[in-house]
Specification:
The chain is built from 14 helices and 29 strands. It is of the alpha+beta class. It is globular.
Length: 574
């Protein structure tokens, strides 16, 4: 550290590029500092640094990281602690550009595996950025000395040393995540696709604030008796809640009674949530995918024939391509692509669906004969989808009682409280027989695999061979192309988006002209399982977060240069 202090004093007042002399490794009393990359300008992205705290110094007991679930939760907790300490200890500092910044990846409500804090042979390694200070483009040496020799050691001592941390708070975080993972892992054996604990708080404060809603008007979740089950968790013990069985479930009810709020909670049940979020024990199958219409998206040789055939243009719907999909063709493609990636649960909200894709009633069937209608609506395929592919559906619907005929379960949201209305819905279906005719045959139909072609992926831009960046949560700049993920609703963190962008490029090594989309994505995830997210780029990254195979496949499918070769191999029914 003294060596670093002397270097900073020596370059005080010099031009900003002199900061590059600081690159290297420095031993402090409690940790080792790695200065990996120094920004070339005060207005450029901040410098990248790491600290490694030896296991004996950090002092975290073995039971805080004794399994993968606990390790991820510990790393998430330390990231939060580091971030909060940075924000609370840094005062306002004069300077140009990003002068004075010390920051680490900032988590939200979800507990995600991140590269911001990693365990390396038991040591704690934190990866963060520092805006080395300057006035204009002249080095502000005294400020830099304070940051590197006083502030960073203080942050480490407060956030990465076990003795400085509230032990009860730490263990609550770890055990909550472990319990949620244990609950999620048991869903299939219990015959469920999802579980919502009694007492959960599902509403959020606003569309831009994902924290739990507060106040007298917030109604805690309470399961209907028919769906209430008790489960025992490793740490919390027995809890009760609503188990949503495999099959076809409808969520019905009047407007503003909580239908979409429940579906949104299920949508994010693929993630663990922090204590106090309200959704700690709302869990869904890891293979749950939200489906919606997506007007304008590009589709590349997707077999949408289970839903759409005999287009008046003569286009081949077993290998359908378009640069500007309609609502119905995009929703059909989104379902087929989800099956291709291995989805086992589909979540659908009628509010974000194409009406003509979801239902064609009797009167419309009388007016427009089937030989003039290329679309087979989802209502006529949802049962086959479950029977033949084992894929369950949870559907929010308020406008078509015809779905009562195909539903296994009907949950009615009444003032945010779910009520079992299955028997009533089935009685209505029996008493008021629909006159609409089933369409689309007696099976779902074969879904064909696709083989992505590596030559259609070009991440280069200008003089740079590879230029891949996340432009916020919903956009990846992949070379000269922009990948729009705004309708991929289960990505919740920009660090996931950033990692997905790099994973697309990494995936091209497995695109040999023989591997299918699922094979390629599966190979990427096997590598991540072995080597972590660091495999996605050459130098250590502190701003990646874990994502799902479904997210990677969705991003690849939305790359507008994507080219695939159709295959006669059927998608696996697993």
């Amino acid at each position: 550290m003294e060596s670093l202090r002397q270097k900073v004093r020596r370059i005080d007042g010099r031009g900003y590029p002199a900061y590059r002399d600081l690159r290297g490794i420095y031993r402090y009393e409690q940790f080792i500092l790695y200065i990996d990359h120094v920004q070339g300008d005060p207005f450029a992205s901040p410098s990248r640094m790491r600290v490694r705290v030896p296991a004996d110094t950090a002092g975290f007991p073995a039971d805080t990281h004794s399994n993968l679930s606990r390790e991820i939760a510990l790393r998430d907790y330390l990231t939060r602690r580091f971030s909060e300490t940075c924000r609370s200890t840094q005062g306002r500092r004069m300077g140009s550009g990003k002068s004075g910044t010390i920051a680490i990846d900032r988590p939200g409500q979800e507990i995600l595996e991140r590269t911001s804090v990693v365990l390396a042979d038991g040591d704690i390694e934190a990866r963060f950025v520092v805006g080395l200070p300057a006035f204009g483009r002249r080095i502000a040496g005294r400020h830099a000395e304070t940051m590197l020799c006083d502030e960073i050691p203080g942050i480490i001592a407060t956030s990465l040393i076990c003795a400085a941390i509230d032990q009860a708070d730490l263990y609550r975080h770890i055990m909550t995540a472990e319990d949620a993972d244990a609950l999620r892992s048991r869903l299939s054996d219990l015959g469920f696709v999802a579980f919502v604990a009694d007492g959960s708080v599902l509403p959020r404060r606003s569309g831009i604030d994902p924290r739990p809603a507060e106040g007298a008007g917030v109604v805690p979740f309470r399961s209907p008796e028919r769906f209430r089950v008790a489960v025992t968790l490793p740490n919390r013990g027995a809890i009760t809640g609503m188990g949503i069985p495999k099959g076809i479930s409808l969520i019905v009810g009047g407007g503003y009674h909580g239908k979409s709020t429940l579906l949104r909670a299920l949508e994010l049940g693929i993630y663990n949530h922090i204590p106090g979020d309200g959704r700690e024990f709302v869990v869904t199958s890891p293979g749950t995918v939200k489906i919606r219409a997506e007007d304008g998206r590009r589709i590349e040789k997707v077999d949408i024939s289970p839903f759409i055939t005999n287009l008046p243009t003569g286009a081949d719907t077993t290998s359908f391509s378009t640069e500007d999909a309609s609502g119905s063709t995009s929703q059909a493609a989104n379902i087929i692509e989800a099956l291709e990636a291995g989805a086992d649960v589909l979540l659908i909200d009628e509010d974000t669906s194409a009406t003509n894709f979801m239902i064609r009633d009797h009167r419309m069937q009388e007016l427009v004969s089937k030989d003039m209608e290329p679309i087979t609506p989802f209502i006529d395929k949802v049962r086959h989808l479950h029977q033949e592919y084992g894929v369950s559906t949870v559907l929010v619907i308020g406008g078509s009682g015809d779905y009562f005929d195909v539903a296994d379960y009907v949950i009615c949201m009444t003032a945010y409280i779910p009520v079992d209305m299955t028997a009533e819905a089935h009685a209505i279906a029996e008493n008021y027989r629909t006159e609409r005719q089933r369409e689309g045959g007696e099976s779902f139909g074969m879904v064909r695999c696709r083989i992505p072609l590596a030559e259609s992926f070009d991440p280069g831009r200008g003089r740079r061979d590879v230029k891949i960046t996340a432009k916020g949560l919903h956009t990846i700049a992949f070379g000269r192309e922009m990948i729009d993920l705004s309708q991929v609703e289960q990505i919740v963190d920009t660090s996931q988006t950033r990692a997905v962008g790099r994973a697309i490029y990494y995936a091209t090594r497995y695109m040999d002209g023989r591997r299918t989309m699922r094979d390629v994505v599966g190979a990427v995830f096997r590598d991540i399982e072995k080597g972590g997210l660091d495999i996605l780029q050459e130098r250590p990254a502190g701003d990646f977060a874990v994502f799902r195979a479904h997210d990677l496949a969705a991003a690849i499918n939305r790359l507008r240069t994507l080219r695939v070769r159709s295959s006669d191999r059927p998608v696996r029914k697993d």
